[in-house]
Amino acid sequence: MSRTGRALALAAVLLTSALTGCGGSAGAEDSGGDGSVTLRVGATGWQREEALLKFAHLDDTPYKVQWSLFQGGDKQLEAVRAGALDVASSSEIPPVFAAADGRPNFKVVAVQRGNTLNQEVVAPKDSGITSIAQLKGKKVGYVKNTTAHYFLYELLKQAGLGWDDITAAPLEPDKGLAALNGGSVDAFAGYGNAIIAAHQRGARTIGSAKDILSGNFLWTASDDTLQSPARRKALADLLTRIDKAYAYVRDGHEKEYAKVVAAATHQPVDEALEELEEGEAQRKTEVRLVSAQATASQQKVADAFRDLGALKQPLKVSAFWTDRLNSPLRKALSS
């Protein structure tokens, strides 16, 4: 077995033992109908989709769903590659790096349009740094191979700076937040709960990715999952339920759902409601089919990382996109 093969095999063992509730391969369960199918699905930050489906009374799936929590989409893609996860949810960035070795064993199967709020570069409340331009010569934490990596690079370019003008410190979201609060970094580029928590400690926004990121969030499935008709059917149904659940929230249930979000993110309900309403106003959360436009958007991101030097060779992202789920998903979304 090659070094890469041994590494992936070891990762599979480690990740499988670490994921709560994950059993054996769902592919072995496909012969008995929907009830015997299990989808192992990733989530980032908190299990938003699981809670959302319960809130909208759409969690009564005829198949099993095992949700596992990760700190980022990059970790989800690692789990998919290692065979410990069937479906990952992420921004456009993690699949780029997961495919960088030229041997991806997964495909992007759908796009979830969403808001790009809480994707920011923040500085501590007592810092004199008020702009991206002032980061020159400073130590900046960021979450590697994620949206934070990408928008920090783009914001630096807009300010006339290059990546080498800062001391870039790759950190996981929780460690980045701790470093910001502890003063070991001058600023932090992050997203989601880490940014919410940073603001709760008084951190100030010095750069926003609101108008930099595309708003495309990708659903990615392992090749093994896509080879199973039963699991393809289940996945199309699950994504449709998520789409309908967001529509349910928008249909006059924002305040009630904000309570669910607030309990998970440890923020005031009014604040969670404001973020929810602002996010849906910026870009309505919807599940969409794979398209040439969405593929081109990710190609732009991959090219930026190539320019940055984070990718060692050019990457053609269309190689790991597929429209195989388009037909059942289109049918389910229109029903």
Automatic annotation (TrEMBL):
Protein keywords: Signal
Pfam families reported for this sequence: NMT1
Origin: domain of life: Bacteria
Signal peptide: 1-28
Residue span, Solute-binding protein family 3/N-terminal domain: 38-260
Family statement: Belongs to the bacterial solute-binding protein SsuA/TauA family.
Name used for this protein in its record: ABC transporter substrate-binding protein
Organism encoding this protein: Streptomyces flaveus
